[in-house]
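Margin note: ligand = adenosine-5'-diphosphate.
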Amino acid sequence: MKVLVINCGSSSLKFQLIDSESEKVLAKGLCERIGIDGRLTYSPAGGDKHVFEDPLPNHTVAVSGVLAKLTDEKIGVIASLGEIGAVGHRIVHGGEKFAQSTLLTEEAIQAVEACSELAPLHNPANIIGIRACQELMPGVPMVGVFDTAFHQTMPPKAFLYSLPYEYYTKYGVRRYGFHGTSHSYVSKRAAEILGKDVKDLKIIVCHLGNGASICAVDGGKSVDTSMGFTPLEGLTMGTRSGGMDPAIIEYIAGKENMTLSEVLNVLNKKSGVQGISGVSSDFRDLESAAAEGNQRAQDALDVFTYRVAKFVGYYAAAMNGVDVICFTAGIGENDMAVRAEVMSYLGYLGCYLDKEANNVRGEERIISTPDSRVTAMVVPTNEELAIARETVAIVNK
Ligand code: ADP
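Resulting structure:
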């Protein structure tokens, strides 16, 4: 079956057409600046990248543009839309309603809409993408795959905040966790690579990208994760603060004469390694600045790696041990220096870096020494493939 995977943001839409039998990407691309002016980038497998600057006034026009490229006589990869067997949508928040991927019936779409309050920036955009596909591909089954679903196995001791309980029961204030599709895919893949059953392993997945989170996966189930009610909690990120003393919010609002939402905007968009360094949120820029002697860039890198190492320690404690530590996403897959620095904290676990093996980018590889008690590895994430697999599984049910 050919599955169109859609990841829809408020002004962007990423897509991949995946052949579920061969698991090959047939074409992929991105619509940007939707509602502003518009740019569609389209790359058929093995072909050149094409950029179209046609106007994209809304998401329906964007999806329609994508479908036109996929079926184009010259650069298309399918003869007609009839070849698309299903559409898989990435959905950010499934609240407590969705512990699994789901067929997007009208009832399910309404339930996703009801979760919008918990993710006001993301879910409405996801729903716009779903509606646009419904309009242009009526009758094609669509599946929602949620970032939060994998973490619904967390026990109350991991998901409850120490706040008045009624905030949880009345308003759903609890830890949900995100990047679930990635944590699930990477933990399963790590077990496969090691030739073991995921049910027999305690795995810590470090998803280190611009957004970053760590997950404790015990026997294939998420038992804790570093992001919480929103993706703001936990690690230091590209521009997000991660965990901090909430009293700082009122203090800074007073000092800088800002509203609560202005402070939250700073915590989301101007903090993290960007905020500390004043240089960039991109680790390549931070590393070159640090190499030239920029101390704040070095501090930002140190805060980042120290916090990753601390969370690995939390989760080794939470699971009473750990067998495998995985690095994934932009930084985890590509940044050898960050991996080496994190690993320098892990000797107490009996996890030692194999420097030569660590000299790798974007490839599956064990990077701990053979005598390590805990295996460290790089496992590139593939959220689109995971969504395509889930979509096929749900459609074939
Ligand atoms: P997201 O999906 O959250 O936007 P990614 O997983 O794509 O993020 O990660 C993007 C980040 O990965 C970049 O901001 C950059 O810091 C880091 N990154 C990408 N390539 C490299 C590299 N070669 N070396 C170091 N860091 C890299």
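The CA atoms of residues 1 and 21 lie 7 Å apart.
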